[in-house]
Specification:
The protein is of the alpha/beta class and 307 residues long. The chain contains 12 helices and 12 strands.
Length: 307
């Protein structure tokens, strides 16, 4: 079975680091490109974090600098959760720019997708600015994309505002473009990350997964959730989980619209499960034990694959 070609848009961010680590060593994935974007913290930090992570993992996937701000409104920040640089709790050795490709992210993604013999999958685990720019600049690219997997949106209460989840609230206009791309979109909403939390015993198992496990254990131990919840919640890796193990999840079709005009609801994900028109599959439940077991095993596999 051939590996699934994948492009990742990310804003590391602690849980982004976990999602990238799993993806880079997943037996079924072939990561072709990583596009750091602004998001949890500024592009300056997310770009360096991506290069530093690859240096730590000894991987060689090309990195292309993404957007430094949303399409329309000013950027927001989650530094209070992830630390000023986005990766509180661990000090990476600073990497050079050997993996950094020159050029615009939308153009580089388009070239990589068009030159791929197989349709490429997209994974968005930050604001969706760069994917939106790709679809707007090169609308024919959708013919060569298999599916889009997203961590973002919320069925109920948000974590950025009462109605909006952070990744979608970061660039609602971009999210609306992605949901209306005509592509199959699979969504790991906020509630799935809330449910797919790790127990202390599971955290201890991660700590035992060599240098990679120690790195992630240190980072996850430094997350400070805005609501004061002390559980270790796993957000971005749930999107990777849906991509690789959909059987762990309950997925329901829905029509998703992003609120772009509301005074109090700007950035809200309006997820309509009753609509006869569907533009996304939404994860509504997860087998937490199977997910946690896979998560720990994936970290061990990453450590074993690190040379």
């Amino acid at each position: 079975m051939s590996k699934k070609p994948l492009i990742i848009s990310t804003d590391p961010g602690i849980d982004d680091v976990a999602a990238m680590t799993i993806s880079l060593f997943a037996a079924d994935l072939d990561v072709k490109m990583i596009v750091p974007t602004w998001g949890n913290v500024s592009l300056e930090h997310t770009l360096q974090n991506t290069l530093d992570l690859e240096n730590f993992l000894h991987t060689k996937v090309p990195v292309v600098k993404g957007a430094n701000q949303p399409l329309v409104r000013p950027a927001i920040s989650a530094a209070s959760v992830h630390g000023e640089t986005g990766i509180a709790g661990f000090e990476f050795e600073k990497a050079n720019n050997d993996l950094l490709m020159s050029g615009l992210a939308a153009t580089k993604m388009y070239e990589a997708i068009k030159s791929s013999p197989e349709k490429v999958t997209l994974l968005g685990i930050g604001p969706l600015t760069d994917f939106a720019l790709l679809f707007k600049q090169y609308p024919d690219v959708v013919e060569n994309i298999a599916k889009v997997y997203i961590m973002g949106g919320n069925i109920g209460h948000g974590n950025h505002s009462p109605f909006a989840e952070y990744n979608i609230a970061g660039d609602p206009e971009a999210a609306q473009i992605v949901f209306h791309s005509g592509l199959p979109v699979y969504v790991a909403p906020l509630e799935i990350g809330d449910k797919a939390h790790l127990t202390q015993d599971q955290m201890d198992k991660i700590k035992e997964c060599g240098e990679v496990g120690k790195m992630l254990y240190s980072m996850f131990s430094h997350i400070h959730e805005p609501d004061g919840d002390l559980r270790i919640k796993i957000y971005d890796p749930t999107a990777v989980g849906i991509m690789l193990h959909p059987e762990f999840f309950t997925l329901k079709p829905a029509n998703v619209e992003i609120e772009l005009a509301g005074r109090y609801t700007y950035g809200a994900s309006v997820i309509d499960f009753l609509s006869k028109e569907h533009n996304a599959q939404i994860a509504t439940d997860v087998d937490t034990e199977r997910f946690a077991t896979w998560f720990v095993q994936s970290i061990q596999a990453a450590n074993n694959g690190r040379k």
